[in-house]
Amino acid sequence: MLKILHRIVCMTGEIQFPNSELRILLLFIKGIMMKAPLIFSFMAISLFMKGQMQEKICLYLGIGLVLCIAVEAVFEHITNVLQSATGYEVFADMRMRLGDHLRKLPMGYFRRKYGKNKHSSVY
After folding, report:
1. What does each C-alpha distance from 36 to 43, 88, 89 come to in angstroms?
2. pLDDT, tens only, 30-42
3. Is 1 exposed, middle or buried (CB count within 10 Å of its CB: 0-12, 13-18, 19+)?
4. Which are the contacts of 78, defined by CB distance < 8 A and separation ≥ 6?
5. Cα separation of 22 and 77, whole Å?
6. Mean pLDDT, 10 residues at a time, over the chain (123 residues)?
7. Cα three-residue angle 13-17-23, rounded to 5 degrees
8. What DSSP element (H or E) covers 19?
9. Which H or E run includes 93?
10. CA 65 to CA 59: how far, in whole Å?
11. Rounded to two decimals, what is the model's pTM?
């Protein structure tokens, strides 16, 4: 996992990401909300096994589960919007770098096949 993150950071290069602290906070809260239903389920099972489950507690646990899932969905949407914009910028930069690199390469084969125009051989 860390190797993948390292590769992503290396690929992004010099691109500055706005709202980096906000993104980290949103991902942290989303991670907590992802694990909260497991905690609520553990609490419910524990109370059932002890024989201490009451209607009011069961209602509160159910409301807590629904709220956690709703908050997680909202944070998932926000992070997806932020990450899609960043992904677009990263891949646009990578396409430009690839085009620059291809223009520097010798294109003898493509020139013989497609003519003298370098751009027609890239497309």
Report:
1. 11, 32, 33
2. 888 889 989 998 9
3. exposed
4. 26
5. 14
6. 73 65 80 89 91 92 91 88 79 84 74 60 51
7. 125
8. none
9. helix 55-104
10. 10
11. 0.60
